[in-house]
Amino acid sequence: MGRISFLALLVLLTGGCASQRLAGSDLDRISRPAFISRIEIEAGPHSLVFQKDSAYKGKLKKLEPKEADRRLQAKLTGAVSRFEVSERLRVNTFRQLPEERPWVDALAPARVATMLESFLVEEVPANAPDYDLLTRLGADSVVEFVIQDYGMRSDQGRAGAYMRGYARMFKINGRAEIWRRPFEVDRVSEGAEHLDPFKVGKDPSLFRQELTGMLDVVAAQFAEELRPPDRKPGAPPPEVAGPDSTHTTGRELPAPPKPAEPDLAPGELPDPDP
Predict the structure, then answer these.
(1) DSSP secondary-structure letter at 97?
(2) CA dihedral for 212, 243, 103, 130, sign (positive or negative)
(3) What's the CA gap between 34 and 143, in Å, rounded?
(4) Confidence label for 165 from pLDDT (cuts 50, 70 and 90)
(5) In what helix (H) or strand (E) does residue 95 lie, and over which residues does it extend?
(6) Which of 57, 136, 166, 243 could form a disulfide with 182 if both were Cys (CB 3.0 to 4.6 A apart)?
(7) What is the CA radius of gyration of the chain?
(8) pLDDT one-digit tens code per residue, 31-83
(9) Is a pLDDT exceeding 80 seen at residue 250?
(10) Would you indicate the residue range of the signal peptide (predicted)?
(11) Cβ–Cβ contacts within 10 Å for residue 92, how many?
């Protein structure tokens, strides 16, 4: 299955009245956007595997489902940081946008983070920041990505990663939205290959690989929608990027080192790291 099936599911689940397409005429009136990506405070990662699916009861032996989910959730947390999840969505969306205005005039992410006092550190701000502060940097609009829930779940013995949230673009003055796109990607509903939770407990990078693949497909969808087909080609970028341009900073974050995992007996989930 792979990226094509991811995209098909994304398109299927993000339609509806909650969406608002970006019009070329609206984008023409934007001159200085700021990009923000954040994860809500209770968004996860969550393990909804063992307590929600009795198919694993025999494999758990004496381990309570609640405790098994707690241990797996600790492994999911260590597999990929909230900061990397959030930033990957922002960076990979931005890097696919065309080299034209208003994107080449977007505020540099470091300046945005400093103004909003998030400083691009490990934990991203969970609550919506005060976007009015960005007007001090000359921003007139915000492209915001919000992850509301993510983790692993299972149904009838088949487990996989899931993620949901929304993206939007709005003018800071008045908060008028000109683009909104809710999204939900669920590998279990899709019928994708089973992501064995016991294997994830031993090798959390398996969850990281699936989640980052989902983020990349969502980012590609967002980048496509931020290029409205009814818009005339924008002005070319300047020959030398200014200090506020973000198109020179769209690098992917490095993968964290993979910790060594102990050998475990079949069906055993490791204790969470201290």
Answers:
(1) S
(2) positive
(3) 6
(4) very high
(5) none
(6) 166
(7) 20
(8) 999 999 989 888 999 999 999 999 998 899 889 999 999 999 999 999 999 88
(9) no
(10) 1-23
(11) 20
- CA 10-14-17 angle, 5° bins: 165
Q: How far apart are alpha carbons 39 and 219 in whole angstroms? A: 15
Q: Is the per-residue pLDDT at 4 higher than 50?
A: no
Domain residue limits, the chain? 3-225
Cα separation of 103 and 87, whole Å? Answer: 17
CB atoms within 10 A of CB 113: 17
User: pLDDT over 90 for what percent of the chain?
Assistant: 58
Residue indicated by tokens 């993000």: 14
H or E element in which residue 79 lies: helix 65-79
Distance CA 206, CA 203 (A): 6
> Peptide bond before 102: cis, by omega within 30 degrees of 0?
yes
Q: How many residues in the chain?
A: 274
Q: What is the SS3 assignment for 174?
A: coil
At 154 the three-state DSSP class reads strand
Element (H, E) at 104: none
Residues forming a β-bridge with 234 = none
274 has a pLDDT exceeding 70: no
Name the more confident of 272 and 139. 139
- Separation of alpha carbons 219 and 87, rounded Å: 11
> For residues 161 and 204, is the Cβ–Cβ distance under 8 A?
no
Torsion angles phi and psi, residue 47, rounded to 5? -110, 110
